[in-house]
Amino acid sequence: MKAYLVLEDGTFFEGKAFGAHGESVGEVVFNTSMTGYQEIITDPSYYGQIVTMTYPLIGNYGINKEDVESRKIFAKGLIVKEYSKICSNWRSNCSLHEYLVENNIIAIEGIDTRSITRHIRIRGAMQGIISTLDFNKDSLLNKIHSSPGIIGQDLVKEVTGEPKTLWGREDAKFRVAAYDYGIKYNIIERLVSHDCNVRLVKAETSAEEVLAMNPDGIFLSNGPGDPSAVTYAIKNISKLLGKKPIFGICLGHQILGLALGGKTYKLKFGHRGGNHPVLNLETQKVEITAQNHGFCVDIDSLSKDNVELTHINLNDKTLEGIRCKKIPAFSVQYHPEASPGPHDSDYLFREFTKLMGN
């Protein structure tokens, strides 16, 4: 069955549908990872987005139950050059097509993903629609233009989960309260592997409620959308500064930056993939990192009296990490847990446990 992809500037592609049938509107972005499509589409940070995979063959190792990063697929759609109808892996439980159908997610193949990626790099990420129902370009454009988009939208409220009583051992050395802005399971597993037990709290949980749990540290998770729209999170983290050690990743990094008085802005096309070079300013070592974000903390908006810059992106010199000088709090823009991606930055979880141990 044919499918259409239309971007908000009128750019049009015709391909073949796989996964579910229907229509889906979202911000069209690209990810440069060669593997990990299962982890990518189940990452809640992709809520509101249609993901273009730049690697040309997707689906060849199927889907398994162990590698999901959340309770369901959160990406709004998937764009690939070629979908592999044969999946071969001893851990595979079903095909990517079957998994997309089960989750009612639309995908399109048979189009030039290099062209889409180049277009986004030149013009910037933009809204788009995949449809297997409507093949009228003007009609599809009207549907795109009636969509609210990403900027100014609080998408965290759509992905934050129900609190789980406990992850990890009850007698673990450290107790962590983790704000769930769209947390990936593997982040929790990395914390557990560093002798933490983790209690998830919903995104809107008050600072007072978190402090009443008396955790050893507070974790701020990844998540989707515009950080400046998550005003309740910024307010709560402002109240928690200096009360407990804080570690933030991705959206959690942006919220910490905003709570410290900084500002955020939208990147032209974002950073998404498993091969982004980041310079650790303390060690002068380059870390190859996994990333997924479309917004960034403005370096110049942070007070240099209170905040130290710790990591810089070597591709575009944007901010990738900060540490507070007077209170125990730090954060990074990228994903040290990877999944998928390199493990160069796993030491950050040890840094968090050191803060909690002091």
Can you offer a commentary on this structure?
This protein is α/β, with parallel strands linked by helices and 358 residues long. It folds into 2 domains: 144 residues, Glucose Oxidase, domain 1 (3-Layer(bba) Sandwich); 202 residues, Class I glutamine amidotransferase (GATase) domain (Rossmann fold, 3-Layer(aba) Sandwich), CATH 3.40.50. Helix content is 23%, strand content 32%. The strands form 3 sheets. Strands 11-10-12-13-18-17-16-14-15 form a 9-stranded mixed β-sheet, with helices on both faces. Strands 1-2-8-6-4-3-9 form a 7-stranded mixed beta barrel. Strand 3, helix 1 and strand 4 form a beta-alpha-beta unit. The chain is globular, with a radius of gyration of 20 Å. The termini are far apart.
Assign the structural class, choosing from mainly alpha, mainly beta, alpha/beta, alpha+beta, or little secondary structure. Answer: alpha/beta
Q: What is the H/E order?
A: EEEHEEEEHEHEHHEHEHEHEHEEEEEH
CATH superfamily of the largest domain: Class I glutamine amidotransferase (GATase) domain
Major sheet characteristics = 9 strands, mixed
Number of helices: 10
Question: CATH fold name of the largest domain, please?
Answer: Rossmann fold
Number of domains: 2
Query: What gap, in angstroms, lies between the N and C termini?
Result: 60 Å
Main sheet strand line-up:
11-10-12-13-18-17-16-14-15
Mean pLDDT: 96
Percent of residues in helices comes to 10-25%
